[in-house]
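Tokens as discussed.
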């Protein structure tokens, strides 16, 4: 998947909560859903969106599935955000240079 899919998936605050819960390591859907104000099936739907966006891996473990952050999916998003930051710094440097020339 592309960074666009990741950004779209992360636009939802519930999905960002799920990602935050998975930062400590893989969890089953029950553990992810614990304490959330939405139903377990709704959490499963959010997990599917995050998985489809390439942000999560799903590993069968007995009769449950463990969800974890997918390094490759996050890396694609990180590279995109890094490129935005590089562009912003370049624009700032150009503006500073132009301002210095004008003084």
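Sequence:
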């Amino acid at each position: 998947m592309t960074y666009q899919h990741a950004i779209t998936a992360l636009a939802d605050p519930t999905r960002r909560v799920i990602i935050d819960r998975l930062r400590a390591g893989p969890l089953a859907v029950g553990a992810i859903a614990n304490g959330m104000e939405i139903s377990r099936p709704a959490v499963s739907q959010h997990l599917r969106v995050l998985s489809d966006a390439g942000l999560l891996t799903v590993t069968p473990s007995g009769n449950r599935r463990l969800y974890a952050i997918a390094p490759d999916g996050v890396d694609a998003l990180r590279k995109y955000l890094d490129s935005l930051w590089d562009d912003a710094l370049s624009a700032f440097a150009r503006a500073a240079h132009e301002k210095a020339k004008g003084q």
